[in-house]
Amino acid sequence: MNVSKTAPVMDLLHRYSSKDVPLFGPEEEALIPKRWETRVEIEGDMGRYPFMYVGEGHNRIYIVANGEVVWTYDTGLGGELDDAWVLSNGNVLFSRMYWCAEITPEKEVVWRYDLPEGTEVHSLQPIGPDEVLMVVNAPTPQAVIMNKHTMEITYQHDIPYEPNSEVHTMFRRIRMTAEGTFLLAYLTRGKVVEYDRDFNEIWRFECTKPWSCQRLHNGNTLITDETDCIVYEVNKAGEVVWSYSEDDAPAWLGQVGKFERPTQAPNSTRKSETIGWQSCIRLANGNTVFSVQGAFGQAPQFFEVTPEKEVVWYLKNWRDLGPATHIQILSDPGIPENPGECQR
Fold first, then answer.
1. Nearest by Cα to 177 from 206, 217, 208
2. What's the CA gap between 303 and 277, in Å, rounded?
3. Domain-located, residue 335
4. What is the number of domains present in the chain?
5. Radius of gyration of the chain, Cα coordinates, nearest whole angstrom
6. Which of the two ends of the chain, N or C, has the fewest CB atoms closer than 10 A to its terminal CB?
7. pTM above 0.85, yes or no
8. Domain range holding 216?
């Protein structure tokens, strides 16, 4: 694979803090105050990387640069943010459970797709400059590629799934590989499967509750298990060649694994729910960055480990930031629109 040596977004960072960016965009929907806000001192290094991230349970997109929050976008209440990309043109592409959109740094909505009633989207990926890949959770789930300019569906295929299944818990991640195959993490079916374009199975790996998956440059697959709080690197033979669990994290880092959070639904009979790790990324330097929900104020949102499992960076900042589900390091090389270039 020929991976770009440049990080195109770095030349565009100034746009997010420009005077042309409104404090509140015309289609931005305000959130309630941060319920985890504790006004604690910042721990770790806020300025190690410029990054964009989103966090399930808090529908705000953040961009951090030069050690401070330079841009946010509130997407309103209800549903959840699970996947987002900063593109080479500086726009932000994101999934929003019942809809997905692309917005400029100036907070102009340039594309939006509202899903049919009874369906959900939790993951999407830019495919070239014009198209976007989505996994649509539905009674018959589908992989869909849409042209953002014409709204034409250029590819659509049913995904193998048991009938009469709960729509919400089907998938959290889809990724197209550099070879044009599809990786899908079956959230509550305990498997990650790679399919060809006709959805013939090529490869699979089984674990308890796979939330995310991505193909690495070395041909292995990185998988995050939410329930067990384990990240697996798995080769094509299905062998685990590297892993990191909450037991590997040093005690000084604090709680980074499973925790209980109050159920938000007002009529729910459940008092709390358990949540763990959801996604991580592999950097060009070989390190792995974990995004952590963070027990709503009790734990760091991000930490980075070397292949030898040494923690070389962490960030805990509940004064300025919220919970973390997925991060994009903007200084890491690779063209986001080229499948397989970014290991995320």
1. 217
2. 12
3. no
4. 1
5. 19
6. N
7. yes
8. 8-329
